[in-house]
């Protein structure tokens, strides 16, 4: 029988699955895209229906550069931008062009678990590096550099997935200096950078350092507009952009998403993307506050977490002896879900952690989910239950 | 200065560059896509804006299966279809998942030159196999199989790029039998299969043989709707579709082009794609006839070609001692262009051949281009000219 799903996620009614790391369905911008499509398809000319320029539609890149200059608070040039069919596809292309099977890549511990899967498909050797409250620890990186020659370090520097930690400004500079000294790329996944809920902006994005020619920044419309568009970008220095634009895939198929770029160009030029970002930041700020408050109410103090300044996630640290993968069975019985910490570990660790996403659900659902999670934890900490399940 | 191109191709005014292997700009379906966008974006629900189902939108795949069943004249099931962001991207993904650096792939001689570039980016070892008027020669394939263990054979079985030759029906069966016996995949690039201009249909597509689990068929909307959409499909048996849908890139980014799939679903369901295909076949048939007639008029009989039954291309074979790469300089002076045969050779051969595309230009331009090509050839065959250029 044919699987007629349109969307990837299949959330059963009544379920509060905090593992869904994606924008809220209620905030998907259908009306906005209707306007953009009417604008772009209403003319007489459609160069965006032909094979697209390899680097991406120049007018779209110009509009995006203007948008990023404002929101990144740095000067972004259209020439630095290469249009990708989503950040994941950009990462996949970078793996094809810059790495070979058996090469080593450094990742943070924890790291975005699906990036790890892409690295596995390219048969790369993954080495995890420790983080603290200020992000990746440069001294730990330097120590590993004496043992390995990585082709790149993959990092989520701002509002980290899953830990929500932000890499401190001075550490960013230290990482760039190390990348130049030891000759490896830093692939900075900055898809959450624009989702800042604090009064003060985060440190400048790693995209500020692309002149080093060792830093490659990934961005995406998935978190600020709609994931189904499959539209993102790679920001890098001229030699890297040239290498990407000149590869066989681009030569054969042309630019990676010309039609969608043309429509999203209208959302940028008409100011609709700016409005949407404001809407999202307001909604997600409220959701984050509500979920943190509910977690404090329903979970004991032995379960630790930091309230994030941006992004999508809350990273829960349960007592050392709690295995969140084991606890998930009880959670699912109580119609609540999360992603166990071990999924984010390249070292098979973090078994007592869990990632919750606060972006997907409305506030009443988030509160109900937190309440259920409290019940789950209480039941799980009951010795009888755990002994029964350990048999 | 920013490159503001939207389209990949930059055709100077007055130039008739037959190397442009793409649909005619005058036939790009802007009005059709305006209707489809109004239809799909006019509702209240937009599941296609979320991360898409990994295999691709189920309703889109069902509509596509119906369309292909009619036009391929075989039973196509939605379950056999995996949605890709263009055939090139599908090919790139197959290289990532099924091949490793150093692996051998077989191609036809000549072969689609940009596929060869994709294989190079994946560091694959390319072996060219001879063709005749009935396509790839099975005996030659079998002989090479005693020397190599290819991961796959890449073939354009119907209306070949660049030679326009079609693989004979019985040879298709022989190739499938060999792929089973020697355990390699056949990746059949069938993007021209639907562009048939003869009274009789071509042999059944290689997609008919996917139950062997060794055959993978690539299809695309680039040649029958618009290349800028970056929408294509992979048709394969269940285990292969499962492997594709389960890879890291899909897990991370969801389906490869959900938004565009949703719009193109409307073109299929509203019958617009069917109408567009009829329009294209009529226009391209007339262009092919006009160009063949003009070539016969302006080129001497020493330049050989066969009138194609479908696709985009005419393959010119000049006398043995003509180097079409060398002749191109004279062609460009006379405002006409083509792709030299050597570009399609993995063996550095076919120096006396050239590919012309008849899809891009209107009839008067095709005729003028043929006239110029006749002048170019005449000038080039002038001994004085060639000696001067040989210095």
Give the class-level CATH name of the largest domain in chain A: Alpha Beta
| Mean pLDDT over the full residue set of chain A | 96
Distance between the termini of chain A: 38 Å
* Interface with most residues: A-B, 82 and 83 residues
Could you name the key traits of this structure?
three-stranded antiparallel β-sheet; eight-stranded mixed β-sheet; globular; homodimer; 13 strands; Aspartate Aminotransferase, domain 1; Aspartate Aminotransferase, domain 2; alpha/beta; 391 residues
Kindly describe this structure:
- The structure is a homodimer of 391-residue chains.
- In chain A, strand 6, helix 6 (169-182) and strand 7 (185-189) form a beta-alpha-beta unit.
- Chain A is built from 13 helices and 13 strands.
- The model of chain A has no long low-confidence stretch (mean pLDDT 96).
- Chain A has 391 residues and is an alpha/beta fold.
- The longest helix of chain A has 27 residues, at 272-298.
- Chain A folds into two domains: 16-28 and 274-390, Aspartate Aminotransferase, domain 1; 30-270, Aspartate Aminotransferase, domain 2 (3-Layer(aba) Sandwich).
- The relative contact order of chain A is 0.17.
- In chain A, the strands form three sheets. Chain A has an eight-stranded mixed sheet with strand order 2-9-8-7-6-3-4-5, sandwiched between helices. Chain A has a three-stranded antiparallel sheet with strand order 10-13-12. In chain A, strands 1-11 form a two-stranded parallel sheet.
- In chain A, helix 5 runs parallel beside helix 6.
- Chains A and B meet through helix 1, helix 2, helix 3, helix 4 and helix 8 of A and helix 1, helix 2, helix 3, helix 4 and helix 8 of B.
